[in-house]
Design a protein that fits this description.
Shape: globular
Mean pLDDT: 94
Strand content: 15-25%
Oligomer: single chain
Helix content: 25-40%
Largest sheet: 7 strands, mixed
Number of helices: 13
Structural class: alpha/beta
Radius of gyration: 24 Å
Length: 432
């Protein structure tokens, strides 16, 4: 599979760090960011590269050459005039005859690309976007998807968005089927030339290629907690340098075993009100956002595992539960915290109640104190459960965590066989 790396940007926002080299050649812990990207790709078998270059292109070409000394094969596409961030794709369309990776050269990442590509193939779409939660969704573009992960809406930070929304942000890594380029009415010969008003004709990736795929069922999100960060401004550059020094970038690759803090929802994250049926009753507990933010910063995954029998009881629909969870993610995001995944059990074992959903009234393996949700997370994220924690406020939370092989922390009194007794999630993160 070919990989196209867009390396033609001028990097004006980060010129204070290095003004005399192109942005992809800025060093992170002694090595250009583009070299780190190439190493990540090479080590996973992605060695057929096309690099688009423009500003100070000779620095990149002279450093990498044909790629042989780096264990890859590199072709270059030189933009003599600005083509936009997707114009080059049309100019070299003859080289793109199968699915390809499209990456930004100013992103710092370490992800399992084979897992990403396998997901794309399983969906059979034209485009798959690498998406993740971040600490500032309120000023990022967010993606709204259907149940199958297909993109319904793409909201920029300027768009009016729903009151409550899922923290799902496009990270700028893509798997693209070249057939998508044939769907656009683009005169390839005119790209890079002046229009009648004297403006250079360019092609914008998001606006002209990706966003029109919304609601077509042909573009999907691949959600992952792996490390992807734009280093295009000085503050973020310093942040990624620190993350490299501390080993956080490499550790988040899902090829490596992950550690997680599993969290109960009601009574742990939000105020306990019994069966939560009304979204207006959802209220974060004091200190929870700060505690989850510390979990995010620690490198542990923050994963919710919650029993929601209100679904089986017919008191809350799946759509209403999703909206409650959207509210939880929105409120956390406003305070710089995020959840890596939310798992819920919709079942209940007891039958015979008015309004119930018969097919959900079953004995299942996911309802705590069973550990099915933990094992699903273990598979999804390659988690080492023995190095993970379960934090909750009930006996079932502790039993489920123990059965999964996790250490456990109980919010409340020391009635069960937990490892730690705490008064709140905030106290837990201050201890662990």
């Amino acid at each position: 599979m070919k990989t196209v790396i867009m390396a033609g940007g001028k990097g004006t926002r980060i010129s204070s760090v290095a003004f005399d080299v192109p942005k992809p050649m800025i060093k992170i812990e002694g090595k250009p960011v583009l070299e780190r990207e190439i190493e990540c790709l090479r080590d996973q078998g992605f060695t057929d590269l096309i690099i688009t270059v423009s500003h100070l292109a000779e620095h990149i070409i002279n450093y990498f050459g044909d790629g042989s000394s780096f264990g890859v094969a590199i072709e270059y596409f030189i933009e003599e005039t600005p083509l936009g961030n997707a114009g080059a794709l049309f100019k070299m369309q003859d080289k793109l005859n199968e699915d390809f990776l499209l990456l930004n050269a100013d992103s710092v990442f370490d992800i399992d690309f084979n897992r990403f590509v396998d997901y794309h193939k399983s969906k059979g779409g034209l485009v798959t976007l690498f998406t993740h939660p971040n600490s500032h969704p309120y000023d990022s573009g967010v993606l709204i998807t259907g149940e199958d992960g297909s993109v319904d809406r793409w909201l920029t930070k300027e768009d009016v968005r729903p009151r409550w929304y899922r923290n799902r942000v496009n990270a700028g890594l893509h798997v693209i089927n070249p057939n998508v380029l044939d769907m656009l009415d683009v005169d390839v010969e005119k790209i890079g030339t002046e229009d009648q008003n004297g403006k250079i004709i360019k092609v914008d990736l998001d606006r002209q290629i990706l966003k029109p795929l919304c609601e077509t069922g042909k573009m999907f999100c691949y959600d992952s907690p792996e490390y992807v960060k734009d280093m295009g401004v000085p503050d973020r550059y310093e942040s990624v340098c620190s993350d490299y020094r501390e080993g956080r970038v490499q550790a988040k690759n899902l090829k490596n075993k992950q550690k997680a803090v599993f969290l109960d929802r009601d009574g742990t994250i939000n105020r306990y009100v019994g069966f939560l049926r009304n979204i207006e009753e959802f209220e974060l507990l004091p200190g929870v956002a700060a505690a989850i933010r510390k979990i995010n910063e620690s490198g542990y995954l923050a994963i919710v595992v919650t029993n929601q029998p209100v679904i089986a009881r017919g008191e809350v629909t799946y759509e209403q539960l999703q909206e409650i969870h959207n509210k939880m993610e929105t409120l956390l995001g406003m305070q710089g915290a995020y959840l890596d995944r939310i798992y819920f059990c919709p079942h209940h074992p007891l039958k015979g109640y008015e309004g119930e959903i018969p097919e959900l009234k079953i004995k299942c393996e996911c309802r705590k104190p069973k550990s099915g949700m933990f094992f699903k997370a273990e598979k999804d994220f390659n988690i080492d459960l023995s190095q993970s924690w379960m934090v909750g406020d009930s006996e079932n939370d502790i039993k489920a965590g123990k059965a999964a092989g996790c250490r456990t922390a109980l919010i409340g009194v020391a009635d069960y066989l937990q490892d730690v007794t705490i008064s709140s999630l905030e106290e837990f993160v201050n201890q662990f």
